[in-house]
Amino acid sequence: MRALTVALVVSLLFASPLMAQKRRAAAKPAKKPAVPVMKTITPDVKCTSLIGMGIKTIRSFCDVPAGRDPQQGILVTLPPHAGAATLSFDLHARHTYSEDLTKSGKGYSRYNAIIGVLSMKGDLLTRGAVQGEFRTADDLFDRIGGGAGPGGLKAVAPLGREQVYVTVPAGVDQVSILGETLDATTPAGHETVVLPGRPVAIVSNLLVEYKPAPPARRR
């Protein structure tokens, strides 16, 4: 009887750690599914009037045409995204630089441009505006290479910089950037541009921040 009691005690001593270990293992919470990480990329951009590359910023600069038809604007294609995505870009006034006018002190120009970002159905997602004043070459945001001017520079140049942020709803995979109005005072006089196709501003540095959509389920 005593031997039986000793054997039972020994078996309980060995079993207790094993049972406690199993209990602790069973108490571990199940692993949570991985949360998709936000990604930031340069989107696919269709620019009908690409101005060229900046010599300082190494950015591509694109004209924003005036208009109301989304198909005629700068088309930005977003990757498949879960929830809303954020499109961002820099908006610049569009200046035509003249070395002679600048040296003579007659090159002063002032711009006030408004653009819109639309869905391909024509729904307005947001507006952006930029103001810029030109007096000297130091006022320019950048110069663009590949031109016939001094130093191989183009006359058209970005002036000023305003950052624009656009919330793109889930299910919208393409948007259009279009100009609305441009109020400009230049050595040539004062004008207001609303004619479709006329450039009213310049954009650069387009980026999209988004949460990748989950892969489609196989049927």
Explain what this protein looks like in three dimensions:
The chain contains two helices and twelve strands; from the N terminus they run H-E-E-E-E-E-E-H-E-E-E-E-E-E. It has one domain (39-210). The longest helix is centred in the N-terminal third of the chain and has 26 residues, at 2-27. The protein is mainly β. The strands form two sheets. Strands 1, 3, 4, 6, 9 and 12 form a six-stranded antiparallel beta sheet that branches. Strands 2, 5, 7, 8, 10 and 11 form a six-stranded antiparallel beta sheet that branches. Mean pLDDT is 87; it is low at 3-15.
How many β strands by DSSP? 12
Helical amount: 10-25%
The succession of helices and strands, N to C, reads HEEEEEEHEEEEEE
SS-derived structural category? mainly beta
Largest sheet: 6 strands, antiparallel
Assembly context of the chains: single chain
The shape, in one word, is: elongated
Rounded to the nearest angstrom, the radius of gyration is 30 Å
Number of domains: 1
Q: How big a fraction of the residues is strand?
A: 35-45%
Distance between the termini: 66 Å
Number of helices: 2
Low-confidence stretches: 3-15
The pLDDT mean sits at: 87
Question: TL;DR of this structure?
Answer:
This protein is mostly beta strands.
Provide the fold topology.
Elements: H1 2-27, E1 39-41, E2 44-46, E3 50-53, E4 60-65, E5 74-77, E6 85-96, H2 99-104, E7 109-119, E8 124-134, E9 156-168, E10 174-186, E11 189-193, E12 199-210
Antiparallel strand pairs: 1-12, 2-5, 3-4, 4-12, 5-10, 6-9, 6-12, 7-8, 7-10, 10-11
